[in-house]
């Protein structure tokens, strides 16, 4: 299974970088992992709705250019479906059983994802109605993907 994470912005915080490195290493025994960082747009404190859409559009074009053909695309969106860890594992397992061998997760920037990216997605996933920094979300996503593989393989994990 190939897992690709397309994420807007660079990770600056050392502790998040270390966590990403650790979960990437752990995941290497279960899947091929590719993390792609997309440059984020510089965003001032206050944006008009139109300016926000322009930022989403520019970042969205860069994201769309990195999605592999035939990949099952899961966009992280506050309006997406909330799943338990077990449900995410079952979703991944079901995709594998049905012949999917390539999943792309997309994490937007500080203003979210463009409508084009959301419409390209096969599934919209929400981790919570809360808002998380997109840098931290990458670490949380990796941990949940790792947990999914542990569940799929019947290995112990913390509930």
Q: What would you say this structure looks like, in words?
A:
The protein has 5 helices and 5 strands, in the order βαβαβαβαβα. It is α/β, with parallel strands linked by helices. The protein has a single domain (2-152), classed as Alpha/beta knot. Strand 1 (2-8), helix 1 and strand 2 form a beta-alpha-beta unit. The mean pLDDT is 94. GO terms for molecular function: rRNA (pseudouridine-N3-)-methyltransferase activity.
Keywords:
159 residues, alpha/beta, Alpha/beta knot, five-stranded parallel β-sheet, globular, RlmH-like, methyltransferase
CATH topology: Alpha/beta knot
Count all strands and give the number.
5
CATH architecture designation: 3-Layer(aba) Sandwich
**What is the CA-based Rg, rounded?**
15 Å
CATH top level class name: Alpha Beta
Q: First CA to last CA: what distance?
A: 24 Å
Main sheet characteristics: 5 strands, parallel
Structural class: alpha/beta
InterPro entries: Alpha/beta_knot_MTases (IPR029028), RlmH-like (IPR003742), tRNA_m1G_MTases_N (IPR029026)
Protein name: Ribosomal RNA large subunit methyltransferase H
Binding site for S-adenosyl-L-methionine: 76, 108, 127-132
Keywords: Cytoplasm, Methyltransferase, rRNA processing, S-adenosyl-L-methionine, Transferase
